[in-house]
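Dear Dr. H.,

I hope your travels went smoothly. While you were away I took the liberty of generating a structure for the chain from your last submission, since the lab meeting agenda had it listed for discussion. I wanted you to have the full record in hand beforehand rather than looking at slides cold. The sequence, exactly as received, is reproduced here:
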Amino acid sequence: MQEVRRALRRLVHARAVTRFSLIGDVSSDNLAAVRPVITDVIADATVTEVPDGLHVVGTLDGADAREVNRLLLSALRRAERRTRLRAEWTADGQVHRFFDYVPKSTRPAPGG
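The corresponding predicted structure, in token form, is as follows:
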């Protein structure tokens, strides 16, 4: 996890940073291995168990939605390779939806 934090600090210092709000679902073959990774990467994460895995709500800083999504999913997959992430990252009035590393859509945020 130290390497993830160092990478995040380097990115924060290199670019303009935006705070992204996350609402996402994580499914994995080993939820016990990925749960602590979520709370390490996203300090304010609220993680709840759902029938298909874990529901995650929190915030993460980064240059763009693709970057923060990649940061989280890469960390999760280091803990357990067979992990999937469905995520909505919201910032600056836009909601960016991802399935794993693939961007699915961008739309205006409700009320934004």
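Two observations you may find useful: The chain is about 35% helix and 45% strand. The chain has a mean pLDDT of 91.

With kind regards,
E. W.
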